[in-house]
Recover the amino acids of this structure.
């Protein structure tokens, strides 16, 4: 296995993500590219969480009642964005 492949595997384990550009820029075999992409999408699928309508509505209430720089506001914003991406 190439050093580039090993480095990208290590980064994927450490950060949980890789970009298309990182994979394309490395000198990899097609099998290595396929493996990295499959692992990358598996990690994304495992970490993605479905947001319910109730969670979305509750998060919107938090957005309306908290300051923009508060941790609660930021967490609620992530929930709202994730729900809207699902739609």
């Amino acid at each position: 296995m190439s050093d580039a492949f090993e480095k990208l595997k290590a980064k994927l384990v450490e950060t949980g993500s890789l970009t298309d550009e990182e994979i394309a820029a490395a000198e990899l075999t097609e099998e290595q590219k396929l493996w990295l992409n499959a692992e990358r999408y598996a990690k994304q699928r495992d970490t993605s969480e479905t947001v319910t309508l109730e969670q979305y509505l509750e998060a919107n209430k938090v957005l309306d009642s908290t300051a923009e720089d508060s941790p609660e506001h930021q967490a609620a914003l992530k929930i709202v964005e994730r729900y809207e991406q699902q739609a």
Summary: Residues 4 and 26 are 6 Å apart (CA to CA). The helical segments are 3-15, 20-25, 30-47, 53-65, 71-86.
